[in-house]
Amino acid sequence: MIVELNRKAKIAVGMAIGLLFSGCVGDRRAPIVPVAVVRPPLPVSTPVRPAKATPPQALVVLVDSLTRNFGGKVGIAVRSIDDGWTVASNGDLKLPQQSVSKLWVAMTVLDLRDQGRLTLADPVTVRRADLTLFHQPIAALVKGDGYMTTVGELLQRALTQSDNTANDRLLQFVGGPTAVRAFLARKAIADIRFGPGERLLQAGTAGLTWKPEYSTGSAFVRARAALPGSIRLEAFERYIADPPDGAAPRAIATVLGRLQRGELLSRDSTQYLIGTMESSRTGRQRMRGAVPPGWSFGHKTGTGQDLNGRTAGYNDVGILIAPDGRAYAIAVMIGDTVKTIPQRQDLMQAVVMGVVANHR
What we know:
By secondary structure, the chain is of the alpha+beta class. It is about 40% helix and about 15% strand. It is built from twelve helices and eleven strands. A five-stranded antiparallel β-sheet has the order 2-1-11-10-7. Strands 3-6 form a two-stranded antiparallel sheet. Strand 10 and strand 11 form a beta hairpin. Helix 1 (about 5-20) runs parallel beside helix 2 (about 55-70).
């Protein structure tokens, strides 16, 4: 099939695949960034035109090659928000979202804002009983009677820092998982599950039953390490096989396209959310690492637990906007892999390189 492509397309595919499998070195860990100031995004796209255009064949070949050769459970979806075509490989496979699911909490919050039922300035208190686990920088601010904050600050922390406690406190504030699932259903968003919340999700993945003491220090990690290996492996495999927070890459790309077109939220809330996603600096060497100058990119990452060198969920999803204003929704989800972090990042960057090379 590749021999039928034009020379430019061949080069784009070759460069992207070469990047993926050449390997890379160096420390790619992103620093924790402070709460960012939201900058206005580009204008929301006009309604999508009928899907008359066909996707670039070079991009079809690239996406298929990346998933087929990477190893592990991988799903990729790229949607042209303006032309309506989608390129996907394993696009309907439900893979662990992990912190990608923070997007649905944010949309639920902003939908309630659009209804006049809350404002970003509404006060919220975060107490020690609200703490979760893993990445929760807000925990350092919770002392005594708690940390007084607002809906807006929690939303910023959840999306730009991927703060688990900020997100779970927002989830409580809007009515829990039931409220988010109701939002997804009302907006006819299919093939995206919303899990039980950070604490129960991570405890179940590890083979533990949640206890409040797991939210402080290294208690959760110690309790997880004390479990028999067979119990941990069984829980890990069960999660990967049927993740309660599973979502299809094609579905996520479709939802991001609807968001960009202004179909899910008011114009103000749409711009606020996309602007916040653009201000995020988590996962700097995932898809963002290949975004060229002049293009804008708003995204949400997600990372799951490790066991014996395997990771259950390593993701990046977002909206890539070209200098001419044309936009693409991209979802790259790695549900189970033993590949190194640089190799995973190269996979994600190869997808962006392919989109940029085939932009027309």
